Amino acid sequence: MTTHAPTVTSPSPAADDELYLVPTGPIPARPIARMNQRRRPGPSAPLLGLLVALDLSALVSAWIAAFVIFGAPGGAWHAGLRVVTAVAVSLVLARVEGLYRPGIGSVRTVELAGVMRVISHGALLSLAVPLLAGTKPDLAFVATGSLLAFVLVSLGRGLHGAWLRSERSRGGLMESVVVVGYHEEAERLVKLLANHPELGLRVCALASDGETAGQHNIPWLGQPHLAVDAILRSEATTAIVSTAGMSPSEYNRVIHQLVQGGMPVQLSSGLHKVAHERLRRVALASEPFFLLEPSGPSRAQLALKRALDMVVASAALIVTLPLLALAALAVKLQDRGPILFRQTRVGQFGREFTVLKFRTMVIDADSRLADLRAQNERDGPLFKVTSDPRVTRVGKLLRASSLDELPQLFNVLAGSMSLVGPRPALPAEVATFDDALLRRHDMPPGITGLWQVDCRDNSSFEAYRHLDLFYIENWSCSLDLLLLWATIPAVLIRGVRSAMDRKTAGAAAQPGAEEFGVQDATAAMVAS
Question: For the whole model, what pTM was predicted?
Fold first, then answer.
């Protein structure tokens, strides 16, 4: 791979203009290093096979279970034919929906929305075919099979995504990409991929200005219009191209040459904090354009969100009442201290309120906090310490199962919190927020949210900031429902991981060692 040293000496202003400014005239045609040559497969190929196998297993299990429950009219052969047909149709619909695109699982809400559409369309098709054939459809069978299929497929994909994020957080199973673009937007893309390792994309080179490459110590391939051959010879399996700073002629020439050379290209729109669902593809004079839909909740939508909070929180409290009683008794018997942990947080419109949780730390946790500051594993105002010695034995169990969060259902009923939203921050942390991040107070804080579902283990404050602002900008009731459903497998997976970590720690740790994954309850705005 041809590279230039990224740490170049800064030229004079005139030389800098000559080196970094993009050409304004036509870009001459250049020979392509390898026309339409198949790219080297990355780790996405075997991961795709694993995902298909998980979906296949879930779908077969769901429809067989439906037949076991409702019987198999027509005999075993007919039953087998219907199972095969239902599974095949679902897999085809999943392919059409884009559920096997690389990186689809990195955004759980997008993945779950796709799964829901696939299952619902499959159910409608299963009901429509008998009607067209003049027979009565089996509504109970189709409804049960579809519901089981949605549950099993989403749980399987949740497990797959959790394992994948865990591997990628350690640097494994990453795709190499080249970022193509100039200045501020190239810088933003490099930081975005670095802050979100769950995407599985690692920048291996830049076709940009040398300054950006030097700042991040990334191999520099030259300016985009001069670097096509180097990009095609690189180890990258994808190029991410930004329009910012490029003339239309350079932009089109670079993209066409990369595609002709067999390089998959992802185009950055340059839009920040905008959900892709708000962009509609339209054609003007046979050219691709996007229609951006406006955002902003209506009063009716906010009322629906509040009604959803009241109904779900009330039902959850009734169902979990025995667990609440057992958890409260366990906390009290642990050290005879307070059952609840109360703390002042900042909610909607900047109003302060008292958040409730089961106490998971020793009584004097606040006084021992200063001793652990140097061990903080988060950046920005976030705080987390692995093997926090202040967490009690009961507290570890409550955190692993997320039962420590149950008292916040009373906050939801009181209106100071919502089921879904940004996590409530401490007043001291809010004092450090800029004007953009203060927008998170436009919505009530939540027990769960985008950050907790998509990148709970991400240590980057920028990732936390990005997802909170994204939620505020693109909120909808359907997004809340998807996040609530995505939280269920996330909690189950977290409990399994905690149990496995505890087993490993018990076998290998020194006496007195605590288990992995405990977050500070007195200082973290995103406390689990």
Answer: 0.74
